[in-house]
Amino acid sequence: MLDGLKDIIRKSSIHVCLVNTGGCNGCDIEIVALLSPRYDLEQYGIYVHNNPREADVILVTGAIAEQWRDKLQRIYAKTPEPKIVVAIGNCPLTGDVFNQEGGNVHAPASDFIPVDAEVSGCPPRPSEILEAILTVAPGAIAARGRQKL
Amino acid sequence: MILPIGPVHPGLKEPLRLKLKTRGEKVLSAEIDYGYIHRGIERVMEGKTWQKGIFLAERVCGICSYIHTQTFAEVFEKIAGETVTLRAQYLRVLTNELDRIQSHLLANSTYFKAMEHETLFMYMLGLREPVMDAIELLTGNRVNMGWNVVGGVKMDIKQVHMDSIMLIMDKFESEYGRYVEMFESGPLVGLRSHDVGKMTRDEALMARAVGPIGRASGLKHDVREQHHTYRDHMDFKVVWRKEGDNFARTMNRFDEITESISLIRQVIENLPPGEIRKKIEIPAGVAEYRNEAPRGEVTYSVETNGNLIKNISIRTPSIMNIDACAKYMLNDVATVSDAVATYATSDPCIACTERVIILDESGRHLDFHGVHNINSKLKG
After folding, report:
1. A26·B65 Cβ contact <8 A
2. pTM
3. How many CB pairs under 8 A join A and B?
4. What class has domain A11-148?
5. Residues of A contacting chain B (CB within 8 angstroms)
6. What is the residue-wise DSSP string for B341-370?
7. What's the complex ipTM?
8. In this model, does residue B352 exceed pLDDT 90?
């Protein structure tokens, strides 16, 4: 019964932390656009507040610049269980245009932390980001929570 | 006491470390560390053709991505000694001004969020979405538009698109004045904004502040005045103010949006017929070109052998503005939350700033203090 109650609560209250690990900002402003009245992220119970210590979902954008190789793992460790990671945009998947000779990036993000969902696009549309979070987040968080118990 | 903020923090959208030196609640001074988003974009561009380079130039910054491609294309046109057709020039102005509107709205919304005025934050983002629709109508994309090429623009505009953009602008203008008035005459937002984070004209000159941040402190400097399309065919006035506080910077952006709307109307009413793209033969050469990005002056200097880019140097406005914020605006600010709001009003774009990274011989990272960083304790 406790599990069921936790599932319901976790589904309607998803806290999101946005980590830009070296992208062009395009994906970040599309996530900010999600807050706008047109998309209205908060009607789904999703709150973007950029605090890893109380986040359920980590949104990773960017192509893992040099400084983030250890810092990304530290942020992942700081986030309490159950947690999921969504990689937004082409950068954390492949490094996009920066992953060429001379570029100082270490994509993909899945080399450093486990990634649950990936949204491709440069940048993906806000509706696609929202769809990805809503598809994967409530179920996966609830499943992770039960594993722990 | 030193209060560190960032790189991942509820107050910041982008990674950057803000060190505030505080006594009690009062912020005495601030220092800023960069180096979290360096990707080596200039190095990647070397040895590539312009067809590949223009996509990299677009991804220098996601918010003002349009002006980077325009400047990149125009520097190659300068090397070739040619100008694009008048229709292409007009279309570039149209997209540039649409991009400026969405960028200024985003900057102001970030400021309202930083000073915890959620209502205006939502209004600004709500206003921004129709402008993003107009950009999407024109270019097919919301953020990275892929619209400029050396020699013109990729797609022509149709009458139906012009009508839609005019409709969007009419609706935008009818709602827009109300929100500006809300900010300008609102007692609470005014109290939080007036005389906070003040920067005088001399300080702005010393910090090389550009764009709305410099203009709000009395530096009447807008590169659009020197751009040939704006100079010869457009009618606009440079918006500037004297106060140099948070209120002035925010109002400066609001007033520039009004100017941008008038420029968009001028373009759509006077759009000349003709070709949108022409073939340009690029010789070997070197050139520099400046343009007014939403945040200020952006400079590209390119050396090419006619086919490949030999060397490229990009100077973006944010680096000067963020330094100006750390050195001059965050002096004796009353509270920490005011300091964060002041930082937000300098319109920081970290993705723009990260050009250089310093390594020692073994490839290990040194503490990054910037090359011309005026906060730097290092000499030379």
Report:
1. yes
2. 0.92
3. 132
4. alpha beta
5. 17-30, 32-33, 35-38, 49-52, 62-63, 65-68, 71, 75, 96-98, 100-105, 122-123, 125
6. HHHHHT---HHHH-----B-TTSPBPPP--
7. 0.91
8. no
